[in-house]
Design goal:
There is one protein chain. By secondary structure, the chain is mainly alpha-helical. It is globular. The N and C termini lie far apart (53 Å).
């Protein structure tokens, strides 16, 4: 598809790929810093520390970007993995759109109309959706198993965010980001979250379930050249 081929250029071109990876590093660093109160507990925000074995379910945004970074790193060294690429696509589409929804739905809480940091985070998270597109071309024909495994992970994560009884934030169960307010309409946010898991996986499946023959343009990671030896004599 022309859409996937266009965005694939930004991964295949080493200059664009390097720029994206540098930007990702900043996003990953800030993302994990953002979740420190939830990792360690915070009296200021009135939240307890999340147990270490549950940390994997907490930092949704930086983890999504981390999957993309890993996929780009593998590609740089002449390798790729369907599951890593698929996580990069689905996680960035879902989390990017989810964050935009939360910031707009709770606009009075996040005060995005004041052009504060949350306003810029809205656009940066939409950039995560755009980043997801660069991995689509190589996922053609990846198969139903890849899409199914990714969907299962997303739904488990959704359960942990909104229904896990072992942790509470602001009076609501679950490991959702601590800045999302616990209001009577939290159920709407939970429903939107699950819907985004289904939609983002369906978006992936549109490529993964099609036969590779439907995409005649082969794509391979850049080959690593063997070191040249000078001839003596």
């Amino acid at each position: 598809m022309a859409f996937a081929r266009f965005f694939h250029h930004f991964k295949a071109d080493p200059r664009w790929r390097t720029l994206i990876m540098v930007i990702n590093l900043g996003g990953i660093a800030y993302g994990f810093y953002y979740y420190l109160p939830q990792f360690l507990g915070s009296a200021r925000f009135g939240i307890d520390a999340v147990p270490l074995h549950l940390w994997i379910f907490v930092p949704d945004s930086p983890l999504a970007v981390l999957w993309a970074q890993l996929a780009l790193l593998l590609y740089t060294f002449g390798r790729r993995n369907d599951y890593v690429d698929a996580l990069a696509v689905v996680a960035n589409v879902k989390v990017g759109l989810w964050t935009a929804y939360v910031l707009l739905f709770y606009w009075d809480h996040f005060q995005i109309h004041t052009l504060n940091l949350n306003f810029w985070l809205l656009w940066l998270h939409l950039g995560m959706v755009a980043q997801a597109f660069i991995f689509l071309h190589d996922l053609r024909g990846a198969g139903a198993r890849v899409a199914g495994v990714i969907l299962a992970w997303l739904l488990v994560n959704d359960f942990m965010d909104y229904a896990f009884p072992g942790y509470q934030s602001g009076g609501c169960e679950g490991l959702r980001p601590y800045t999302v307010p616990c209001t009577p309409d939290i159920g709407i946010t939970a429903a939107v979250t699950v819907l985004l898991s289904l939609v983002s996986t369906a978006f992936l499946a549109a490529y993964a379930l099609r036969p590779r023959e439907a995409f005649p343009e082969a794509s391979a990671p850049p080959a690593r050249e063997a070191p040249r030896r000078e001839r003596r004599g």
